[in-house]
Amino acid sequence: MTHSSVPVPSSRPHGRRIVFVDHAATPGGGQLALLWLLENSPHLDAHVIFLSAGPLLARFREAGIPTSVLTSRPFDRRMLVTALPALAAEVARQRADAVVATSIAAAKSLAFVPLRVPRLVYLQEDLARAFGRGLTTQLMFRTVYPAYDGIIANSRWTASTIPVELSEVPRAVAYPPSNAIRLRRLRRFGEGGVVRVATFSRPERWKGLDLVVDAAELLMRDRSCPRFQVDMFGGGAVMDERYTRDLRHRVEAGRLPIRLHGHIDDVAARLLDSDVVVVPSRLPEPFGQVVAQAKAAGAVVIVSDAGGALEQVTPGFDGLSFARGSASALADSLRSLLDDPRLGTRLSDAGIAEAHRWGDDVLAARFTRALDEICDRTRGAPRKRRRAFGLIRPWRSVRAGSVKSAITG
């Protein structure tokens, strides 16, 4: 086990000291949101502890954000146990006023670190999805979350999945920063007679990319359909290789106007070059950073009709929605934009005008207020582990029995 840290700069403002704990400095959505949060919170006396190193560590340090890294090795789940002594020692050394776990994995370790200050979790995952992951995962969830004194959820949807067994735990909703920088859009909607449609999701079935392929097939059956091009961006270590091969085979066999690009780094440039961005998730997205990013870039967003992504869109005003899991409904939404470029222009303009509501500085300020609110509510409260949930009785927060079928059906 190795350990390295960067001391707190003396120029950083003093105030309530917050230590954030994440399992790895990898460029995932949660880690990037934490980076953008702290970059836009110069008044916050913050320190980040990573259980393992990763390529994002340099960006945190370049931004002047104090960090500690417990091991230089790539993350594996055994670290949730083996890193506990080092994590407890580092948390104690930082003398925090509150400690926040920013990932599910980090929450599992932090739950067993002795603390005399509020222990909070920034919840960025639908807890109902814990079902179907095996007994070990359920045992962890039912013993981990009773240890926390407060929960900040990244959307109202995410907050709605918190089990009623934790109803007495203080909670708040704070949307994560998305680096949704407003850039100058030069392309007009449907310029050149082709509407450019894009997705920015890793290839997994629950992300619903096959619904976009289905919708394209439906549109291509009508020879009067205006021209369109679909570009699918996304890949990386966490992806379903078989699902990706199936998508590619269907696109090639059907000679569809779809291109699969895999992972890209220049997301902003691709957004600016897209007329429409589709978020076709079968299961509700806890938040969906690409929605805020696309609106700021002037692309029209089409989202499935549940989850945190829908909280960012007013259908018919600054975007569109479709019935979750329905390729025909998605095709109808796309066709409305293909047939009426003026509708696309109107929705694009409204999205750009609304982008200020999702600016990183605005969301960072809201997160800080939520953090202060929960810390104030937990001040002086006894630090004791709540009784673990019953291991037989199912969580009453599960919204429906169709979670597994939505993934595998």
UniProtKB/TrEMBL annotation:
Record organism: Microbacterium phycohabitans
UniProt KW Cell inner membrane keyword: no
Entries under Pfam families matching the protein: Glycos_transf_1
EC number: 2.4.-.-
Lineage: Bacteria, Bacillati, Actinomycetota, Actinomycetes, Micrococcales
UniProt keyword terms in alphabetical order: Glycosyltransferase, Transferase
MF GO annotations: glycosyltransferase activity
Stated name of the protein: Glycosyltransferase family 4 protein
Domain Glycosyl transferase family: 200-351
Highest taxon listed in the record's lineage: Bacteria
